[in-house]
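Q: Could you fold this chain for me?
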Amino acid sequence: MELSLCGLTRLAGRTAGRLSGGERQRIAIAALFIPDVAAYLLDEPTINLDPIGAQLLVTRLAAARDAGRAVLFTTHDLGAAYEICDSVAVMYAGQNAEAAPVGDFFERPRHPY
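A: Sure. Below is the predicted structure, expressed as structure tokens.
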């Protein structure tokens, strides 16, 4: 089921060594959602993803959030942060700003896709 939800059905017979970086990242996304967990902790989860894969991940994480799961991640993708986060903390020069509602930090950014 996760292979289908992550757009990977066509890759089901290939070995990991024959996958691109983005395809491997999509496999990791599918694996992420297999167990039923209370929280997700991710570090730059949209790296190596094409725009469709990045939007797929953002949509899946937003759905997990809406289902009551905690989602904590680092990102340079302000569009993803805006779509997923209730609050954000911005780091600058190694210092953490106080967490605040997402709208307090920036207006809705335009997504690149």
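A (continued): The two ends are 26 Å apart (CA to CA).
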